Every structure is written in C-alpha cells, then in structure tokens.
TrEMBL record:
InterPro entries the record matches: DHOase, DHOase/Allantoinase_Hydrolase, DHOase_cat, Dihydroorotase_CS, Metal-dep_hydrolase_composite, Metal_Hydrolase
Annotated metabolic or biological route of this protein: Pyrimidine metabolism; UMP biosynthesis via de novo pathway; (S)-dihydroorotate from bicarbonate: step 3/3
Protein name, as recorded: Dihydroorotase
Coiled-coil region list: none
Binding site residues for Zn(2+) 1: H56, H58, D150, D303
Active-site residue list: D303
Claim: Protein transport is one of the keywords in the record: no
Classification via Pfam families: DHOase
Length: 446
C-alpha cells in the first residue's frame, strides 16, 4: 500500500503539521515526520481539508452516458477535491430497485476515484404514484440511506408521509426537491420584476417555501428525518430556521451557484445560467450566506447537473435546467464565503465534509483531519487564481456558468482510501487509480 508524507500543511484551524498516510488511514500528525518508503508531498502554503462529500451529484449513468458516466463524474469529483459523492436517482432506468443501486455502487468502486453512494428514488420510476423499493435498496449491498425523487418534487403529501415513515425505520432520510408543481408550470426563471420584463414564466419563491413548510410539519408528525435539496430563497431559510427551533429533524443544503450568482445573468438568455431552482435575487444570496454562517443551512452540495451541448446551446425556453459544479465548487465557495469573511476553513470543512457525511450516514468523516481517521484528504492552494475554462472541466459536459471568469483557489492533491486520485493538480491516470482501488478493497477483505 502507498505511504505518503505530507510536509508542512496548514490544518483547517490554521495550525501547521506534517501528515503520514499509511494503510489507508491518517497514521500520524506532527512535525518532522519522515518515512523512507513514502511519497513526499511538499504542502508549504497549502491548506489540508478532510475529503469533500457531495450530497447531490448527477452522474447520469445508467442511461444518459452522453452527458456523464460514473467514471467521468468521479474524475470531475476528484479534481474538485471530493472523495465521496451521492449519485442522484434520475437515471434511466431510475435507481428505484436494489439491482440498479448495486450496479451504480460497484461501477463507482471499480472507477476508484471517489466513494459513490447511490441515492434511491422515493417513488417508482420517479412517477410520484407508488413508493419505490425503499427497504430493498436500504438492505442491499449499496446500503442506501438517502432517498430522493430529485428533478421532481414528491408533491403528494400522503406518499411523502409514507416515505418518511419508511426511512425512519432504518435511520434514512428523504431529500426533497421542493417545488410545488402547479405553481411552477412552464417556469423559466425566478418570478419577479425580471421575469415580467423578459416576458418569461416565473418560478415563485412560494413554490419552494410552501413545500418545505409542509414537509417540515410532516417530518415532525412522523418523527422522521427530512433533508431539503438546493434551498434557494430567503423565505426558505426562515422556514428552516423556524422548523429547527421547533425541534424538527430537518437539514438543508445550498449550492455554490445559489451562493454566488443572481437572476440578472438570465438577461443574456445564455442557457448555461438556466438551473432548477432558478438563480434568485441578491437579497436571497445574502440570506443563504447568513443561513450557512448561523447553521440554519447545514451543508453545501453541488447539484452537478451535466447536459450535452444540444440541450444547452439552444433557446432559453427549450434548454435543459442544470449546470456542472463539481470542478468549481471549492473555488466558488472560497470566492463567495471565505474571501468575503463569511466562513473560515474550519466551517468549510464542516459544511463540505463532516455534515454532509453525517446527513448521508457515511462513516469515517466525523473526525476531520486527525490521526486514526480514514485517509480521505484534500490539499488546496488558496492563493492560486485561474481563469476557469473547459480545460478545468473533467466530466463529459461543459455546461459551467463560470467559463471565462476568474476564480480563486485550486486543488493540488486529493487522497482517497490512502492513495492519490489527484497529484500535482492533475488527475491520476485511470488504470493506476483502478489498480489502487482493487488493492485497497483486497486489503480490507483480507
Ligand atoms: N438542478 C437542475 O437544474 N437539474 C437537475 C435536476 C435537479 O436537481 O432538480 C438535473 O438532473 O439536470
Ligand atoms: Zn432538484
Ligand atoms: Zn439535482
């Protein structure tokens, strides 16, 4: 197994340390560490973070491999500093049975860049009519804990109640895409002065807030865990704050793009900025940042949503909703939150690693960067700056809203299960990573 010495890294809390990685774990922290057999990484000026965990990634396989595959999406994740992702269920076939989630999980294991944890659908075929095989997916080898019809809202209150009752029995969580369907028919962008001016159908904040309020009350009634996907409005932050004060088991995520970008970008009709939920107003951005800072919002999740050029290089009203986000997430978080003084790096470690792992019931991420923890680490250079381009995108799709803009920070190395997936700022080659992944699985079996 690979041994790695990271020399002179800065921990999230600002202390400097060397780190010895051996046998898949963080073996030792301290100064003057050396090991004749180890690979040496000079981390002078670099910040070490616990491996990032994404609660909300669209990997598109099976079924939409021209947009992304489990391998290409895993590579995009690794170069973004992630060591685990939760793969959304809106594939074809839908991830609504044990067979599909086990396939997703094992393709992720074989690729070896990140831990791929499948999200199970709440309803069969995402059709919103009958429950999916929730129990079978939970008991399967994929051990699914997060269930979501993301892309669609579980709008039927009785089905939502039944799903919450079901997941409660094994400590799972329902992750809701909060969008009241009747209030958002044909919606193209945030509802307000801009949607009127552009003459496009608006997506009102109340369509999100009403579902969050309803589901928080259902979660309270059932005594189950509820998670809210991609919170996007100031009102949603207030509703979640109220629900938490009431003791309801609700958690919420926000995307990097909703923390940085606003609806004004829709003016150019460039469909790279078309996303669901839509980009909102500057007031909403401010409220989302404040919600993260005060703990109302628990996690940042990318909602990486790859789409091929034919679905994006077209008129705004027929273009697909969604933007890629894995490769840019940490830079956008630095720009929106760290460089603006809203969060420190310890907070970043919490909202991008420990808390999303806890919500997904993913083990090994509760200790942060500490001796004895699994070797899931990200080394970043916060002083770097780059004009973001397609060369920075490693998935199959290029629908990034950040192309040609300057973003701070850069991932220099990512370590997953004790081996490098990113080295000197470049992805480690596929065969090498797959080989290391196989070795690591064999060691853990033996
Ligand atoms: N976010 C998006 O705009 N699109 C997502 C679906 C979703 O997250 O709701 C997709 O699957 O493309
Ligand atoms: Zn969604
Ligand atoms: Zn999504």
């Amino acid at each position: 197994m690979t041994r790695i010495v990271i020399r002179g890294a800065t921990l999230p809390d600002g202390r400097a340390t060397d780190i010895l990685v051996a046998d898949g774990i963080v073996a030792e922290l301290g100064s003057g560490l050396s090991d004749a057999k180890a690979r040496l990484i000079d981390a002078d000026g670099l910040r070490v973070l616990p491996g990032l965990v994404d609660l909300h990634t669209h990997l598109r396989e099976p079924g939409f491999e021209h947009s992304e595959t489990i391998l290409t999406g895993s590579r995009a994740a690794a170069i973004g500093g992630f060591t685990a992702v939760h793969a959304m269920a809106n594939t074809s076939p839908v991830a609504d049975t044990a067979g599909v989630v086990e396939q997703v999980r094992s393709l992720g294991d074989a690729a070896g860049y990140v831990t791929v944890r499948p999200v199970g659908a709440v309803t069969a075929g995402l059709a919103g009519e009958t429950l999916a095989e929730i129990g079978a997916m939970a008991l399967s080898r994929a051990a699914v804990r997060v269930f979501s019809d993301d892309g669609k809202c579980v709008s039927d209150a009785l089905l939502m109640r039944r799903a919450l009752e079901y997941v409660k029995s094994f400590g799972g969580v329902v992750a809701q895409h909060a969008q009241e369907p009747r209030l958002t028919e044909g919606a193209q962008l945030n509802e307000g002065a801009l949607s009127s001016e552009l003459g496009l159908a608006g997506w009102p904040a109340v369509a999100e807030e009403a579902i969050i309020a309803r589901d928080a009350l259902l979660a309270e009634h059932v005594g189950a865990r509820l998670h809210i996907c991609h919170l996007s409005t100031a009102g949603s932050v207030e509703v979640v704050r109220w629900a938490k004060a009431r003791g309801i088991q609700v958690t919420a995520e926000v995307t990097p793009h909703h923390l940085l970008l606003t609806e004004e970008l829709a003016r150019g009709y460039d469909a790279r900025f078309k996303v669901n939920p839509p980009l909102r107003r500057q007031e909403d951005v401010e409220a989302l940042r404040a919600g993260l800072a005060d703990g109302t919002i628990d996690a940042i999740a990318t909602d990486h949503a790859p789409h091929p050029p034919e679905a994006k290089d077209c008129e705004w009203d027929v273009a697909a909703f969604g933007m890629v986000g894995l490769e840019s997430a940490l830079s956008v978080v630095q720009a929106a939150l760290v460089d603006t003084g809203v969060l420190g790096w310890e907070d970043v470690a919490r909202v991008l690693s420990a808390t999303p792992a806890a919500i997904g019931r993913l083990e090994g991420y509760d200790q942060g960067v500490a001796a004895g923890a699994p070797a899931e680490l990200t080394l970043i250079d916060p002083s770097a700056s780059r004009v973001f381009s397609t060369r920075d995108l490693h998935g199959r799709s290029v629908n990034s809203p950040y192309l040609a803009t300057t973003l701070p920070g850069r991932v220099v190395a990512t370590i997953h299960r004790g081996y490098e997936t990113v080295r000197d700022g470049e992805l480690v080659e596929e065969n090498e990573v797959a080989q290391r992944a196989t070795e690591s699985r064999e060691e853990h079996r033996g």
